[in-house]
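Re: [ENG-882] Designed sequences occasionally contain unexpected residues at chain ends

Forwarding the minimal case from QA. Structure tokens:
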């Protein structure tokens, strides 16, 4: 069993429009984070996870995910899986629950374009 409590979260700002609270599940093959998007992330271009698949669950808000040129309007309780290698960006005002496998690392998350 692995447990990560709220007071153990690591808070990060990926950009002016993207903040993330990561739950430390040490030694796990999967991770969990809560993200807040307020605008566009990344600010320009797209990002890609080179190694991990990412599942995003919309907790609140509305927004747009543009993935490989396909525009997807997202609302609360929608779920999307972004597969490793797919290029994307977020836009809107969204609260997301994110989980990745294998575990997300900044080294495999690349800004492109």
């Amino acid at each position: 069993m692995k447990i990560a409590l709220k007071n153990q979260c690591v808070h990060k700002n990926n950009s002016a429009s993207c903040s993330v609270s990561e739950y430390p599940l040490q030694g796990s093959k999967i991770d969990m984070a809560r993200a807040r998007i307020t605008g566009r992330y990344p600010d320009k271009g797209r990002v890609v996870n080179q190694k991990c698949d990412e599942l995003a669950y919309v907790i609140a808000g509305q927004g747009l995910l543009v993935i490989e040129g396909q525009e997807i309007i997202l609302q609360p309780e929608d779920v999307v899986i972004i597969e490793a290698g797919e290029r994307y960006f977020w836009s809107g005002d969204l609260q997301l629950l994110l989980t990745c496998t294998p575990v997300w690392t900044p080294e495999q998350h690349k800004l492109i374009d």
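QA comment: On inspection the terminal residues look reasonable. The two ends are 40 Å apart (CA to CA). Proposing we downgrade this to a documentation issue.
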